[in-house]
Amino acid sequence: MKRFSGYLFWALLLFLSACSIDNTMYNAQKYFASAMERPLSANGRPTPQAVAEYTKTIQKCGIILSEDPDGKQADDALFLMARALYYKKNSAFQAKDAFESLIQGYPDSKYIPEAHIYLARVLRDINQAAEAKALLERFIRDPKYVDHSAEALLVLADFEIQDGDHTKAQYWLERIVNNHKNTKESNEAFFLLGKSYYEQKNYQKSIEEFKNFINIRGINKERRLEARYYIALNYYHLGETESAYRELRYIVRNEQRPGQLSQARVLLGRVLLALGDEEKGLEELEAVTSNYPRTENSAAAYYYLGMYKYYNQGKIEEAIAQFNRVRGEYARSELADKANRISNALNQIKPNRALDITRDADAWLQNHYRRAEYFLDPLALPDSAIATYQRVISQKDSLLAQISLYQTQIDSLNLRIASMQDSIAHVQETEVETEIPNIDFKQESLTEPPDPEAVPLAESENDLPSLGKEIETENLSPEDGKETLEDIPPTIPEPDLATLEQIRDGIISEQESLGELISRFDAEILPFCYYSIYSIILDDPSYAELNQEVYEILQTQYPRNMYTRAATALKEGRIPRLIDPDYEEALASFDAALELYPPDSDSLVSRMQDFLQVEYDDLRLRANYRLGWHFSFEEPDTTRAKQYLREVLTNSEAGEYATAVRRFFDGEKYILYDSKLNTKFEETDLINGQNPPDQVAEPPEETTQTPKEQQILPSDIPAIPEIELPKPKGEVVAPLENDTEPPENMENPAEDIPSSDNQPQESEDLPHIKE
Predict the structure, then answer these.
(1) Per residue in 543-595, pLDDT tens?
(2) Helix ranges restricted to H, 38-73
(3) What does the radius of gyration of the chain's CA atoms come to, in whole angstroms?
């Protein structure tokens, strides 16, 4: 009896335990179902209530697995927990571990096929897209999972659409439609086919596939509304805005999910703007930003507000403000990067009034080139880019007009300067020609001086003659004398001759600067602008006439310019090379000259010396390096080699050439030397780290006999020694008077003697004091 009671106790305990596990599983399933029924938030993620219910599901499943890990519901609990972790959208790595534990720990579970598909989705969420695709492809080929292959194909096709490989996506979807007819997977395949054609911009085909999907029986309301949204989106891109408007009005009236509703309202605002209803369109977009803040669709609304502000209203500042809100509204928005680039571009294309091509040509040109690039990308305004380049081209005529104006001013100033110089010369001649009267002193001496008493002196001003004053008083009017200094117009002093010449020289300097800029226009700026225009309109048939005109300008006016060659390469379908044809020829000639040694070393030296005079800095550097090497090792003449090696060392752009020279020459003497070195020169030997000699020795003795053609350096000429000249015989220095020493208080007579440089040289005619 006692034994029976014990069995009954344990049986009752197991029963109660089983009931407890079943109840826990029931509650977990209930929480999970409730969370799945909740619509996603406006940003496409589960709501906080749904997240809380997923968390409770995970906790309940954890209790089951901890109490009975080998029970019959263990795999159910693990699969439910894994899905809750996946749909929670913040525990991807935990979901991955849970699905892998199910596959490995319960290989016979009925949930294994679905676990593989869920695992592929999780792998893609954690940026392991290649592993996700490989997993699904293995799953599809496995005959054990043939009944689930359609679902796997559907997920794989969705992955390919997201990656932009629509050919593969359509291949997988066609397999579903043909091999799995009348299944929920085949119905879903029609939806994904429509989405794939939309991504390919085949809008008409996309509309057909979505309409086929809507007409399938059994499709739920939410999925039908999503298909109608894509139909409206395709109509919008086709320009059929009335049809798009009708579809969107239906969606807005029937959609309840915040994410899908806000998405439809963004598109409705864009359609209203396209229909010309600016007020309602802007209101719709602004309503999305206020009613669904911090969501992907509110970020999209800010983006399209910015687009309309700039492209339709031309309000750059307001557009920038809207674009700058996109990333802050939803950082993961696919429009965030594009909005940021457009905002940056709009800041760069603002006119800069402070720039002046005559003051800083480089800054002015870079500003316009940069504006043209931003007009092309990301603003997608090729016409504005072309207009920017054409404005640069038109500057040449403005500069020529300015040069002509300067010449007119210079000619006018030259006339004034010449006139002033003539006047000054005339005054000077007059002063020179005016003679001082000759005085006959003999005659004057016979004339008696006047008697000072004979001339009456005036004692005051009243005694002076007043005739002039009376005349002036008679001619004055009553208004005379009332004129003040304010009534007298100010006089501008005439600039003197030096000032006029200074003004003229300044204008000439400005004219010369503009002349140099004009030369730069002809050699570089105009060809570049024409080439840029040509590259923009090359493949646009609407610009065919302008395209041909620009190409003819390049061919006729700049036939040997590198940009003309680049345009020809584009026209012929080749990759253009922007290299100066003259430089290209000089470079080929230089390479050919290097092959002249050893058979014709004299020709090599001659050719290298020619390259010392070319305009290309890099070729002059290489020529100096080659000549320095030649006279150091191939035909040793160290004195002659030094001048070339020093040119390399003093060149600030020598780089690795200077480094190579310093391995055997320090600027004054040789460090390394090998008299037996007589190999063919390779320009890259030293640059690649190869030592010219294999042994360290004393520097070679420098040549003492200078060849006829060798240049003698000033440092090689010995200094002339000082020689003491003997005094001439029979000649002594004249003593001081009385031949005595000067008194102490007497000044040094040498200080009063002028320097020998200012004294006349002693002549033989001068008398000498003889012994």
Answers:
(1) 889 999 999 999 999 998 999 999 999 999 988 887 777 888 888 889 888 88
(2) 48-67
(3) 50
Helix (H, G, I), strand (E, B) or coil at 24: helix
pLDDT at 495: 80
The token duo for 377 is 């990308």
Q: What is the pLDDT of residue 317?
A: 94
For residue 697, name the pLDDT band (cuts at 50, 70, 90).
very low
Identity at 99, one-letter amino acid code: F
Is 14 in a helix, a strand, or coil?
Answer: helix
Question: Any idea which residue has 């209790």 for tokens?
Answer: 63
> Rounded to whole angstroms, how far apart are CA atoms 591 and 607?
11
Whole-angstrom distance, CA of residue 509 vs CA of residue 515: 10
Mean pLDDT across the stretch 52-65? Answer: 91
Which positions ≥6 away from 515 have C-beta within 8 Å? 403
Of 190, 202, 180, 123, the closest CA to residue 157 belongs to: 190
CA-wise closest residue to 78 among 103, 53, 56, 55: 103
Region at 577 (left for phi over 0; alpha for psi -120 to 50; beta for the rest)? beta
The pLDDT score that the predictor gives to residue 717 is 30
| Burial status of residue 27 (CB atoms within 10 A of its CB: 0-12, 13-18, 19 or more) | middle
Helices 112-125 + 92-105 axis angle, to 10: 150
Long-range CB pairs of 174-183 (<8 Å, 24+ gap) are: 176/150, 179/150, 180/150, 183/150
**Amino acid symbol at 556:** T
Count of positions (residues) in the chain: 771
Nearest 5°: the CA angle 272, 274, 280 is 25
- Asked if pLDDT for residue 52 goes beyond 80, the answer is yes
Q: What is the pLDDT of residues 213-229, one digit of tens each?
A: 998 888 889 999 999 99
Tokens coding 362: 């480089």
pLDDT tier at 432, thresholds 50, 70, 90? low
> What distances in angstroms separate CA 662 from CA 225, 535, 692, one per listed residue?
78, 46, 11
Q: What is the DSSP string of 291-349?
A: HSTTSHHHHHHHHHHHHHHHHTT--HHHHHHHHHHHHHH-TT-TTHHHHHHHHHHHHHS
Model confidence at 703, pLDDT cuts 50, 70, 90, reads very low
* Cα(212)–Cα(187) distance, integer angstroms: 9
* Separation between Cα atoms, residue 161 and residue 172, nearest integer Å: 11
Measured distance CA(398)–CA(356) in Å, rounded: 12
660 has a pLDDT exceeding 50: yes
Which amino acid is residue 584, in one-letter code?
A: E
Dihedral angle sign, alpha carbons of residues 633, 636, 638, 641: negative
Q: What pLDDT was estimated at residue 705?
A: 38
- For tokens 């646009």, name the residue: 540
**Cis ω before 749 (30° cut-off from 0):** no
Q: If DSSP states are collapsed to H, E and C, what string results for 106-153?
A: CCCCCCHHHHHHHHHHHHHHCCCHHHHHHHHHHHHHCHHHHHHHHHHH
pLDDT at 719 over 60: no
Q: What percent of the chain has pLDDT over 70?
A: 76
Phi and psi at residue 599, to the nearest 5°: -60, -35
